[in-house]
From TrEMBL:
SMART domains: FN3 (SM00060). The keyword Signal applies. This is Fibronectin type-III domain-containing protein. It comes from the Eukaryota. It comes from Paragonimus westermani. Residues 1-17 form the signal peptide. InterPro entries: FN3_dom, FN3_sf, Ig-like_fold. CDD domains: FN3 (cd00063). Residues 114-206, 207-302 form the Fibronectin type-III domain. Keywords: Signal.
């Protein structure tokens, strides 16, 4: 009997080892909310399936996904609308894989063909012409917009941009040509009709030109004019300038590479306003406006800088200027070899507080004066080292009085020559809590309130001027149970980390 059972067991085991799975059969696909669901069946009565494998390709790229053994349908990701695909399915047990099913062809979900883009319009741009449009709704899944420009002599140009763009520079279109521009939108499911045409005129966006004075004499003013945009087409300049007791003089200049000399109507001690326009056959820019005067012997004499004075945090410069006519303005220029500054004084004055002169630096100062006939030569420069010239010194005689409710921290009054900006006070109590206080550079005390009884407080004071922070003076203040100061050890010093 035992031998018979063994034989039967071997037969069953051998039979199972020889079992093969039939290939699944794809029964179709279903389209659900812009998704493709593939369905299949399998002729297998066992309960030990472990997975199904679905492969599908559009001929360019193959995708592979896994389905659970109980599933007989699966959403296929990455299926492009309107593209054709071939799919196969395979099933597997722990020991056996079925053959793949017969290939099944299907098409990605269908989208309507996109409508033509709308809202197309042209905007001027410093680098050319900017085309803008309203985006086609996302439901159409546009991939590419195509801009089509048709010009004279059967010229046709195309420019493509990706779907997330709603504006583009027409950089493949010739600046000097006129175009009728249309657009199409393309998705996986087709291309829209062309939009209504928009006329794009071949007019460059001319900016006001760059104008510099290159020379002045007692009878002429010479200027140089250059396009603000080197790529813009400029054929000529129109120059219009004021003259005394007469209409404006107007010049048309076609040789734009040379300097331009103005002479007619110019007069000594008259401030001429000069307007320069850039032009081409289709456009004229807004003007660049400058003012210029002839050279005159009646301008102020060369100014002399007489003194530079620092009081507190402010520095004043003083000068002397001789002029045969009324002074109008003074231009003071100063630099610390890193930054340059300009201050203006109006009228017949001889001093000014400089707005950007900071301490702990050496400045080079020079100036020019103006009267009704023009500007003087610049003065001889002077160098001035603005105080302070060294960092603030460590505060001295730091002392605390009062109680925990209102503690008065005092120190010696600073020397005015140090030009202090502020003080920084750090307080750390015995619990590790840290507080920071600020005091102006001119004061020598600070009131600290609400200290804890039965505490030891570490206090450190440092001062700052334009040259930097001083070393810090530190003390410890012990507060008793009644809020009284019971111990104040000798001060020490520390280095400010700022």
């Amino acid at each position: 009997m035992f031998v018979g059972l063994v034989v039967i067991g071997l037969f069953v085991a051998l039979s199972r080892a020889q079992v093969t799975l039939l290939p699944p059969v794809i029964t179709g696909v279903e389209y659900r909310q812009q998704a493709v669901v593939i369905k299949w069946k399998i002729d297998y009565g066992g309960d030990n399936l472990v997975r199904h494998v679905i492969r599908y390709t559009d001929g360019r790229r193959e995708q592979r996904i896994i389905a659970n053994p109980s599933e007989r349908e699966k959403v296929l990701p990455f299926v492009r609308p309107c593209n054709y695909y071939t799919a196969t399915v395979m099933s597997a047990t722990p020991t056996v894989n079925s053959p793949y099913s017969e290939p099944y062809q299907f098409k990605g979900y269908q989208l309507d063909r996109p409508p033509a883009p709308e809202g197309i319009h042209i905007k001027n741009h410093p680098n050319g012409r900017l085309l803008r449009w309203n985006p086609v709704p996302d439901v159409y899944q546009v991939l590419v917009y195509t801009i089509i420009g048709r010009g004279g002599d059967h010229e046709e140009l195309r420019q493509e941009v990706f779907e997330e763009v709603t504006e583009v520079l027409l950089d493949t279109f010739h600046f000097e040509h006129n175009y009728n521009v249309t657009m199409t939108a393309t998705s996986y499911c087709g291309t829209s009709p062309e939009s209504e045409p928009v006329f794009v005129a071949g007019i460059p966006n001319l900016e006001p030109p760059n104008v510099t004075i290159v020379d002045r004499t007692d009878t002429t003013i010479s200027i140089r004019v250059e396009p603000a945009n080197r790529t813009a087409r400029v054929d000529s300049y129109r120059i219009q300038y004021t003259v005394p007791n007469a209409p404006d003089e107007v010049l048309d200049i076609y040789n734009i590479s040379q300097s331009i000399t103005l002479q007619v109507g110019l007069k000594e001690c008259f401030n001429h306003t000069i307007r320069v326009y850039a032009r081409n056959p289709a456009d004229e820019s807004e003007p660049t406006v400058i003012n210029a005067m002839l050279l005159s012997k009646n301008v102020p004499q060369q100014p002399v800088l007489t003194d530079v004075i620092t009081i507190g945090q402010k520095t004043m410069v003083q000068w002397s200027t001789n002029s045969s006519t009324q002074l109008v303005a003074h231009k003071i220029e100063y630099t610390d070899n890193v930054n340059s500054y300009v201050d203006w004084a109006i009228g017949d004055t001889n001093e000014i507080w400089l707005s950007n002169m900071k301490g702990c630096r050496t400045f080079t100062v020079h100036m020019s004066s103006e009267n009704t006939c023009g500007w003087s030569e610049y003065s001889q420069p002077i160098n001035y080292e603005v105080p302070p010239t060294i960092a603030a010194s460590m505060p001295s005689q730091l002392n605390a009085t009062g109680t925990a409710d209102e503690l008065l921290l005092q120190w010696n009054k600073p020397n005015s020559t140090e030009h202090l900006i502020d003080h920084d006070i750090l307080l750390a109590d015995s619990q590790g809590n840290v507080r920071s206080y600020w005091a102006a550079g001119s004061v020598n005390f600070l009131v600290i309130r609400n200290l804890e009884p039965n505490s030891i407080n570490h206090m450190a004071l440092s001062a700052r001027n334009d040259c930097g922070w001083s070393e810090g003076k530190a003390i410890q203040v012990a507060i008793g149970s009644a809020g009284e100061i019971i111990r104040q050890p000798l001060p020490t010093f520390w280095r400010n980390p700022f």
